[in-house]
Amino acid sequence: MRLSAILVGLVLLVASTAWAEDGHDLWLRYRPVEAGAGYVPTAIAPVADTPTLRIARAELERGLRGLVGAAPAGADRVILIGTPASSPAIAGLDLPLKAAGEEGYLIRSATFDGRSATVIAANRDIGVLYGVFRYLSLIQTRQPVDNLAIVSAPKIKLRMLNHWDNLDRTVERGYAGQSIWDWWKLPDYADPRYADYARANASLGINGTVLNNVNAKALSLTGPWIAKAGALATVFRPYGIRVYLSARFSAPIEIGGLKTADPRDPAVRAFWKAKADEIYKVIPDFGGFLVKANSEGQPGPQDYGATHADGANMLADAVGPHGGVVIWRAFVYSHEQPDDRAKQGYAEFKPFDGQFRDNVVIQVKNGAIDFQPREPFHPLFGAMPKSNLGMEFQITKEYLGFATHLAYLGPLYEETLRADTQARGKGSTVARVIDGDLDGRKLTAMAGVANIGTDRSWSGSHFDQANWYVFGRLAWDPDASSRDIAADWAKMTFSPDPRFVGPVVDLMMGSRETVVDYMTPLGLHHQMGRSHHYGPGPWVAGGERADWTSVYYAMAGPDGIGFDRTARGSNAVAQYAPAVGACFADLRCVDEKDLLWFHHLPWDYRLKSGQTLWEGLVTRYSRGVAGVDAMGKTWGDMAPYVDAERHAQVTAFLKIQRREAQWWRDASVSWFQTFSQRPLPAGEALPPQSLDYYQGLSFPYAPGI
Amino acid sequence: MRLSAILVGLVLLVASTAWAEDGHDLWLRYRPVEAGAGYVPTAIAPVADTPTLRIARAELERGLRGLVGAAPAGADRVILIGTPASSPAIAGLDLPLKAAGEEGYLIRSATFDGRSATVIAANRDIGVLYGVFRYLSLIQTRQPVDNLAIVSAPKIKLRMLNHWDNLDRTVERGYAGQSIWDWWKLPDYADPRYADYARANASLGINGTVLNNVNAKALSLTGPWIAKAGALATVFRPYGIRVYLSARFSAPIEIGGLKTADPRDPAVRAFWKAKADEIYKVIPDFGGFLVKANSEGQPGPQDYGATHADGANMLADAVGPHGGVVIWRAFVYSHEQPDDRAKQGYAEFKPFDGQFRDNVVIQVKNGAIDFQPREPFHPLFGAMPKSNLGMEFQITKEYLGFATHLAYLGPLYEETLRADTQARGKGSTVARVIDGDLDGRKLTAMAGVANIGTDRSWSGSHFDQANWYVFGRLAWDPDASSRDIAADWAKMTFSPDPRFVGPVVDLMMGSRETVVDYMTPLGLHHQMGRSHHYGPGPWVAGGERADWTSVYYAMAGPDGIGFDRTARGSNAVAQYAPAVGACFADLRCVDEKDLLWFHHLPWDYRLKSGQTLWEGLVTRYSRGVAGVDAMGKTWGDMAPYVDAERHAQVTAFLKIQRREAQWWRDASVSWFQTFSQRPLPAGEALPPQSLDYYQGLSFPYAPGI
After folding, report:
1. Do residues A469 and A512 share a domain?
2. Which PANTHER family does the protein's record reference (chains A, B) (predicted)?
């Protein structure tokens, strides 16, 4: 009686104060499984004492205790974790570990010492940690764990986050608060959150992080800042995560006292060699440099008449002896060249295929413009078989409504990865380019522009966590299903109840298409507000350069709308494999989702539905608004399965999204109607405000600039 | 056995995951009392259902459950809370509630329904909430609760935080991350943290908050921003907290379409009337405006030849009918007037005593310069008996080492509050000016410039929480002891163990003097780096205005050092009551802590210790460094009483402080030695770097600018 009173007190205490459902736990929630779920407390066999195995063991303990409770003394089930090198017991099991490779793992049900056992083994400690997270996820997603025979190894070598974090702690295109790097207190103070960050990434297999913005400051390469990066690297190391830095190409001038940054200049080469040596002294496993050169005003080798290859190779030579790599972005477009911006990355890089060092990765954005809600895959994929091509996805939602629009990006990533470049015939998917399979590349990479900040939920909204999660899962396996991943995430993050998982996974899977509908349907792109990229701005024109405007891309006029990239226009289709390009150019073949990306068409052009283009455009905008309505309704129904705190935030954000979807629809319809000069389709409501009103809105403190 | 196994599991769970010791709980930790501490589970009698009483009841429940465990059914002790109006039981007790006033409370041990009872009663709901926090603090600080007869009422009417939070979410002079106001998502989404903030403030009796920076944007007074403020006001209202806004004086021009902001212009007056009406429609209990006018480039009535009284009274007339107030800052100094900056606030305001409306408060900084580590009290205190004078303290440590120097500001606040203005003879303390007692003022105010941000610990460091705490406690009772308050805070925030409380309270009480020693000993002031105010900058000279430099204040030369404010110099002493000014001017009377504030003295001037001024200066700098060493040692010994996470952060910060204290000492000694031309006293180490080195340091991303 006394005891039970204490027990009740404790349970109440736990329920009321222990679990602030602020999202900080991410998908690593480890809440108790339902009674009768069939999982039993399990002991952990002794584990070798290395930095990474200590973490693996602690994670396993934490997960099991949370999910199924601590094992009583003498539990008849045991988990054995480790590597053959560190564990004689595991060595004795003679496991087929070759398939696990350098970073993978093997999970096996076995009998050990006469007890029912689960073995989580790997060739290296980091594989064990990955295996532990995988094992716990099986319980979190309520899969059986009694008869396991899992082997998993990452298909991509560098699985990276790119932080566009500035030295003043702002985050370019960040919608989740400040940078989590508290530069000012580094290197003296390592916020416990750094380890939380590393843990979350390790749970996905992410093994690299670029700390600072690609629009870089040379200062980040000076001694005090190298020390700050070094303090972070120390925290990340046992989690298998290497630190990289964005390098400003003109650093030899700015911090090296040189008059040039010409990559062919011996003094410049010596500067970078010495700088690499200096960094590796502090960070022995430093990953390397990420470089944005000759793009959007950043300095680069072309400033000196040298090429991207000259620049990348010079840096590669500096870090190469230390085992480092150079990641060189293909996101370039010239001030001088008035050609279709979509064509410029290909035009500038394709000629140099085969000329980059082995330790250079060309990092290519998923599409040829810039992370739009929808873009056809970038024509460079498949076009540079003699180069290491890495993928750059954007996780932060610069163009998809910031943190307050719900848009699960799994389908966007999957759409690109499954796109068929036909570079070596059918089945030459982007995924096979990226994972090195198509062209036999060894140094492979996938990067995601992080959506992480100081917000308690890490990502600015609960559902945006799913984008970090799906990015990591696809970097491990680019052939995985974004729907399966959504289901795992929803179960681990919210609830494994099928009454929740079913509707919410459907909601997630449709959410990106909904955003496409209300922002840029039918292949439209780059129609957002200037500079902050918030809200609709199809009227944006003039200013510094034409290809930073909306009118440049929509090409709307009395005659019709769309960007002609066929041979009659910019002929961007010619940058694709012939069969692919031919289809894009052919109105009978091209998918309507990409219609206005490739074609300029009259307002009365007939869509497959029988509607005119104008009618189809308007109804798609409206369908987007209705899609948000439907998401709101579904989410409302989910209240029984979600804690009040997170349910309320998602509800509030969906309300914002609903209002802003309407705004996108109304503003876009108002604007394009000035060209179409046609009435709205029957049943379509007139925009409640005049076009002047929408054009007059301003947002002086929009985040992320 | 089964039950006990579950129990053990639960205890482990609680210990390992429930309490992230990241400081977010502040002083409201409610951890279980030690076994045998003598507190027993207590039931809560039914409470009337009003917004504030619901919160009071929930807090009491949460506190009791955490501290002593939930009460079992039929507990023989009961707590009764409420007001006579809402509780017939309390009305029936016929308590002497008059002494509790509008906001105070009464806590009485009593017998009720034959049970041992504690009664927490007040005239208004907010008093009950304050009383609940007080009652819980008694247990938190391990005071007996069996025989209580407490009555407490605040001595000051407006107890306010001033947030210098900008609309882009940066915080001027903030060292704790971003503004907690997520303006972008307001008013749609109310972060649960807003209620946490209100709760923490209510626990101290703080009843007002100015949301935005005194360097204000007119935009904050437009409809969308009023709505954002309104959403915050809705959250704060049941916690007894009113929202105020900083008003930009030129708003009639910037958002009102007028050509002038002249306070005598009828259109301007109409603008502010209408603006006030608009705000009160959204926020019926809006507190009023805080104004920084004609100061540091801000617009004000003097731009039109009008006076501070003209400006303040115009705004007072706009908010007065709604019950609002205008808080007008006396922190002014003119670009045109080359007089001693310390004299200008007095010179500009004293002549207008008696000319301000009854609903105007003149908000005066504690000292005449700007929140230095030490300043004599501001000469306006006591000098404007016919005006409402409010106190402005700075809680954020702009001039005391940012978040990483440990400096408990209680003694600073107390020193000012206990200073004797002698305005009406001896005993005319600043506290008595501020609480209205000296001059019979009814509208009294104390404001603190907040040190709150998005950092998980709220204040950027654990010990900085104490500065928020002591400000709140002194605003309730300006006669309270900063040492007693430190002890309460240390017990509530860390541990009530006397082996912890004794050394840590001593450490806290000495910490501010230590900072004074290594930064600005003997009355020196304004010696920090330019603009960011980080680190030593005694050589700062030139630039926009002389009184923004260090050399202006130290007046160091071959002949000596110090600012002569006697009749031979600026005669600032004449702004004080004659006896006070005479003492300041007299080398035999003035306290050496203020020596160089008031006097310019030769390097060989003899201090009371027998040392020369030069020797005393150097040894004080060094004493400051030694003081940080001692704090580090004390804190190291506290490891057994503090969780590892918070102990580690404080340790890391003390290490930073140690290094920076040395830097302050070395840089200052190097600089002043160029004037003194004297050797260091015996045993004093030479600065390890040249003066050039110290002068060459730069800090491009210092926070808080």
Report:
1. no
2. ALPHA-GLUCURONIDASE A
From A177, A184, A645, residue closest to B178, measured CB to CB: A177
B185 touches chain A (CB under 8 A): yes
In a domain, residue B2? The reply is: no
Alpha carbon distance B317, B442 (integer Å): 18
Q: B489 to each of A249, B438, B473, B483, how far by Cα in Å?
A: 51, 30, 10, 10
Counted across chains A and B, CB pairs separated by less than 8 A come out at: 125
Sign of the torsion formed by the C-alpha atoms of A269, A274, A279 and A280: positive
Which residues of chain B have a CB within 8 Å of the CB of A11? 10
Q: Tokens for A522?
A: 């039918």
Cis? peptide before A187, omega within 30° of 0: yes
State both tokens at A577: 């494999």
DSSP, res A242 = E
**For residue A290, how many C-alpha atoms fall within 13 Å in the half-sphere facing its CB?**
34
Q: A165 vs chain B: nearest CA distance in angstroms?
A: 13
Average pLDDT per run of 10 along chain B, which is 705 residues long?
38 46 96 93 95 98 96 88 95 95 97 89 98 98 96 98 98 98 98 98 98 98 98 98 98 98 98 98 98 95 98 98 98 81 96 98 98 98 98 98 98 98 98 97 98 97 98 98 98 98 98 98 98 97 92 98 98 98 98 98 98 98 98 98 98 98 98 98 97 97 94
Is residue B44 located within the same domain as residue B128? yes
Give the tokens for residue A545. Answer: 């350069």
> Number of folded domains in chain B?
3
B387 and B239 within one domain: yes
| Distance from C-alpha of A28 to C-alpha of B148, rounded to nearest angstrom | 47
* pTM of model > 0.80: yes
Euclidean distance between the first and the last CA atom of chain A, given in angstroms as a whole number = 61
Domain with residue B695: its CATH number is 3.90.1330.10
* Strand order from edge to edge, sheet including B43-44: B43-44, B77-82, B115-121, B105-112, B149-152
Nearest to B197 by CA among B173, B179, B180, B174: B180
Give dist(CA B14, CA A607) in Å, integer: 61
Contacts of B73 (CB under 8 A, 6+ apart): none
Q: Please say if B296 is a catalytic residue.
A: yes
Element (H, E) at B120: strand B115-121
CA distances from A495 to A27, A33, A487 (A): 10, 10, 10
Could you give phi then psi for residue A257, rounded to 5 degrees? 70, 15
Q: Which residue has the tokens 């977010």?
A: B24
* Same structural domain, A502 and A488: no
Pair type for strands B288-291 and B242-246: parallel
Contacts of B185 in chain A (CB under 8 A): 404, 652, 656
Please name the residues between 55 and 114 in chain B that touch chain A, using a CB distance below 8 Å. Answer: 62, 65-66, 69-70, 72
Cα A202 to Cα A207: distance, rounded to the nearest angstrom: 7
Contact with chain A for residue B4, Cβ under 8 A: yes
On whether ipTM exceeds 0.90, the answer is yes
B10, B183, B454 ranked by CB distance to A14: nearest: B10
Mark whether A296 is an active-site residue. Answer: yes
| CB-nearest partner of A10 from B11, B30, B454 | B11
Tell which of B19, B185, B234 to mutate to test the A interface (max A CBs under 10 Å).
B185
Domain that holds residue B50: 22-152
User: Cβ separation of A3 and B3 shorter than 8 Å?
Assistant: yes
Closest approach of chain A CAs to the CA of B555, in angstroms? Answer: 32
If asked whether residues A198 and A321 sit together in one domain, one would say yes
Residue A146 contacts B where some CB pair is shorter than 8 Å: no
Nearest to B189 among A70, A190, A653 (CB): A653
CA distances from A601 to A198, A342, A597, A607, B187 (A): 49, 19, 11, 11, 42
